[in-house]
Each structure stands twice: as C-alpha cells, then as structure tokens.
Design a protein that fits this description.
The complex is a heterodimer. By secondary structure, chain A is of the alpha+beta class. Chain A has six helices and four strands. In chain A, a hairpin with a 5-residue loop joins strand 3 and strand 4. A two-stranded antiparallel sheet of chain B has the order 1-2. The chains are: A alpha+beta, B alpha+beta.
Chain lengths: ~140, ~100
Amino acid sequence: MYEQYKDRAAFYIVYIQEAHASDVWQMSSNVAQHVVFASPKSYQERGEVADACVRNLHLAIPAILDGFDNRTDVAYTGWPDRLYVIDREGRVAYKSKAGPFGFHPREMEESLKRVLSDGHGAEAAVHADDGSRDKR
Amino acid sequence: MRKVVTVLGTLTVLWIGFVALIYAEMRRPPENFGRFIANVPGPLFMALPFETLWSHARGGVIHAGDVAPDFELQTLDKSATVRLSSFRGSKPVVLIFGSYT
C-alpha cells in the first residue's frame, strides 16, 4: 500500500512505547520469534529498538520517534497500535479502533482513497458517487 | 431456588466488579496496564468482553473531523524533523502508531 500511494500521501510510522516489553508484559510468541526487549529507559534506547524493528522487518515506511514523554502517543491514544489518516486540511479523516483488534489497513485505505480523490476540486464533483458531498 | 438466585446474583456482582476493574486498568498508562494484565490468569480473560472494553477504554478524545494535534518528531536516523502541520495544504498523511514488540 505504501508503494502504491507514497507519491500522493505522506506515510509515517510513529514509533511509540513497546507493547510487550520483556520486563512488563512478555508474550511467548515474541520470545519464539526472538523479539525480546526490555522497556527502553531512554529516548536513545527506544531509538535502538526502533532501528532493530525497521531493520529486521525490512520496513520501507519512514519512522519517526515519539518523544520519551510519550506526548504524541497520549494525544493520539496510539498504544499499542493504531492507524490514522489526516486530510490536506490537517483534519482527522480516519481513526481506527484501538489495536490490535482495530488495526485494519484495508479499512484505512478506503479512507485514504476518499481523501485523495476529494482534493481534486471540480474533478471530484464530476466523479463523486456521493452527490450530497459539498464542493470544497 | 433462593440459594441458586443468591449464588447467581453474587457471581453477577463479582463479574461486574471484575469488568469494571479491568476497564479502569485499561485506561491507565500502557506500562501500568501491562504489568497488571500480565498477572491476570488466562482463563479469567475468557470471561471478559475484552475487545469491547478495550475499544472504549482506549478510545481517546480525538474524533474524525477534529484538527489533528500537531507534533514535531525526529526521524529514526536523526537526519530530519517531521512536523505534521507542514503537510497541510499539500498531502494527506497516514500515521501508523506501533512498536516492535
């Protein structure tokens, strides 16, 4: 999905506090896959775990690191994982339900497609299938 | 008959209390919640409407249509800073919150 839309939308992984730190709430599935990390004690340490994540999972999407005060995570209630689409006006177009249950990329994609097509002004009015939508 | 009603009534009250406790814990910061839930025995989980409680507890204050809170965060390689509001007027932004574990 990232490859498909990356020229038209900005994608960022917002790397936040760990979901299953070994010293807090270890998951046996993580142990089996050798993903064992104690809770990072500093911004630097969190960065190191994030690096390992991006490297080992071969993630192409750029990642940004939330401050150690977790301010962005708290504002967005991102933990443990969550998807958002922000439209061109800076408004929230899509907010997934809390992960892991609510983490549905396909559902997010529907919103992204709408946001991308809305921004084409007159074109959107011609192609829109929802006649009740206002012209921007 | 009355004994059955009493037992069922007590169990229901206990269950409601347990659900309320779990909900309250779900709203706490992740590390607190993690430590708490790591100590809850597996079978007890099955008695909970976990997903429903979770969706509500972790709902947060942002709603679709709200202005997304701005932030300015460093990229992993520390080469740049990304400010959400810098995309306004140009591109939509997809945010994927998560961690390795």
